Amino acid sequence: MANQIENLWREVRELSLGTEIDHLASPPSPVQFLRDYVSQSKPCVISNAIAHWPALKLWSDPAYLTGALSNDLVSLHLTPNGCADAVSQGSTGDLCFASAHVEKVPFPEALQAVRSSSKGKSVAYLQQQNDCFRTEYSTVASDCDGDISWATEALGCSPEAVNLWIGTDLSVTSFHKDHYENLYAVVSGEKHFLLLPPTDVHRLYVRRYPAANYSYYRDSEAFKLELEQPVRHVPWCSVDPYPSPEREASERLIYPLFFEGPMPFHCTVKAGEILYLPSMWFHHVSQTPGDGGYTIAVNYWYDMQFDIKYAYFNFLQSVSYESSSLNPILSWREDEDSESGDADMSP
């Protein structure tokens, strides 16, 4: 079985995905998008798709956003290290799935917290899943389109959620997947994606970790990470694709399937571009700020089809995998009710 699974990683690249992410110079027709990308579960980056958005010109100016959203309360996510929805070490030394401290604050205060973030003290990230762009940021919603028209026609439905993300290079999103077709539009700065197809699930070393939440105490500027009660477990990936030099050797020993397997796909999505990220693709996200000192993105989540591809994925992840030359990988199976939502806590 080991050889067959390892062959699968390579064959899906040779037969379907290639070695690089496709870049389209203009938006595809709905038929082309459905035929060449959605049906093949194949990512692509599209240029010249949002050039008409007022947001591209307006949102790089902090004064514009602060003025437009001066009376709006938004969800501010705070962590000590910029890693929310990620595997972290708890107070007892055990690993847990850590979520950010979240509080509602006026947008001007929140944006200032983002721009003044400092690793080791407090890293602020403006985001809230569950359609935050059309709720918390409705005042500036007209600066963008309500959907991606050619994707809406191709997929046969409107977005279930539209989310806004504002952060700095200190915020990083760990490897995870989402059960949505994701159209990810960058408005300011750049987003850097590492991508792995669903066929590579065993390489991500997904395990179940007890859920925990950060609490932030403003008077002492201290964080405390506490386990949820009652205990809830979340399936998550703990692979760090960019370990520090002093940790790299040990990380390669702990996660050999990731570091010794085929290279992840890499793409940079610049301001004005859209990434189509197919459902169930694993992705790790970092970012580079733009002129305003932050990165901004708007993503559109469309419902995925729970079709034969989903059945294939569930079968694959249920298979115990042991390489003849590497450490055994225990099989795992998701409990959909316990999974954290994008969690694309994607920046």
From TrEMBL:
Gene3D superfamilies according to UniProt: Jelly Rolls
Domain JmjC positions: 124-317
GO molecular function: histone H3K27me2/H3K27me3 demethylase activity
Coiled coil: none
One GO cellular component term: endoplasmic reticulum
BP GO annotations: negative regulation of gene expression, epigenetic; primary root development; regulation of abscisic acid-activated signaling pathway; regulation of brassinosteroid mediated signaling pathway; regulation of photoperiodism, flowering; regulation of seedling development; response to abscisic acid; response to temperature stimulus
Pfam annotation, one family: Cupin_8
Assigned protein family: Belongs to the JARID1 histone demethylase family.
Protein name: JmjC domain-containing protein
